[in-house]
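User: I'm writing a tutorial on reading structure tokens. Could you give me a worked example: one chain, its sequence, then its tokens, then a sentence or two explaining what the tokens reveal?
Assistant: Sure. Here is the example chain.
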Amino acid sequence: MDKKVSVVVTCYNHEKYIEACLRSIFAQTHQEIELLVFNDGSTDATWPIIEKLSKENRHVKGINLSKNFGHQAAVLAGLTVASKDSDMIISIDADLQDDVNAIIKMVDEYHKGFDLVYGVRDNRDTDTFFKKTTAKAFYKMMTLFSTKTVENHADFRLMSQRVVEKLLDFPEENIFLRGMVTLVGYPSTSVYY
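And here are its predicted structure tokens:
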């Protein structure tokens, strides 16, 4: 039986990236996928571009949030919608900082029995000194606060439907998905890009 894959793409003022992001996702995946594109209150032309792309491709569904709720809330909204009928839900930002080639690797890991597959950057050579330094400081700080995170992992991950359902049961009001997903407890692994 084929498993349904939904990719949740979050956007905030990404008019420069959204079209290239969606096209590259379609180009790199070899199975039918659904793209749920969430516009988090953009003030640029992001939403009209999403509308155009959804009219051109039946696999693209645009969701326009009423205002800017913030990145984590937009991702959570996407997971909520996708979990209703998807076996695998992949979250990614539209800014092209994550390598969409890793999506195929993530799906392969799911088929090996992993419910949670983290997309992890194994190379930060293109980052500025400031970004490298603040990223390192962030992960050290999270460790000091006893928050379990996966180093060099942001919000690019694959989750099975049951992981998302458990995640949605959390009563958190201040959402920090990077820390929350590690608490769910199903088999997990990482793919590097």
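What the tokens reveal: The radius of gyration is 16 Å. The chain has seven helices and seven strands.
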